[in-house]
Write a structure and sequence with these properties.
The protein starts with a strand and ends with a strand. The strands form two sheets. Strands 2, 4, 5, 6, 9, 10 and 11 form a seven-stranded mixed β-sheet that branches. It contains no helices and eleven strands.
Length: about 120
């Protein structure tokens, strides 16, 4: 089992920044897991925001966040980050950290482990 704990959400004005963190407590080796951030806004489906492979040489970003968000990970700390800059009201959602062994996929159904979610609210 992999337990994921997110932190860093909150309320921010449009144009501001937040950094989300997700730390894994696991008996497995964190460094071999793909990590991803998803988000779900009220009344909408869960969507991928970004993902990063275990060797930190491949990342993917949704078009809506490309150039504004950055995903990174520190395998020594079992932690993945999402730096969010130039936030917009449409970024408002619950953000979830997810992990899976092996290579990244973009479909949420491909992820085995999920955090509890952290709320991000961007005011206009």
């Amino acid at each position: 089992q992999v337990q994921l704990v997110e932190s860093g959400g909150g309320l921010v004005q449009a144009g501001g920044s937040l950094r989300l963190s997700c730390t894994a407590a696991s008996g497995q080796t964190f460094s071999i897991y793909t990590m991803a951030w998803f988000r779900q806004a009220p009344g909408k489906e869960r969507e991928i925001v970004a993902t990063i492979n275990w060797s930190v040489d491949w990342t993917y970003y949704a078009d809506s966040v490309q150039g504004r968000f950055t995903i990174s990970r520190d395998n020594a700390k079992n932690t993945v980050y999402l730096q969010m800059n130039s936030l917009k009201p449409e970024d408002t959602a619950v953000y979830y950290c997810a992990s899976r062994p092996g290579q990244p996929v973009l479909d949420s159904r491909g992820y085995n482990y999920w955090g509890q979610g952290t709320q991000v609210t961007v005011s206009s």
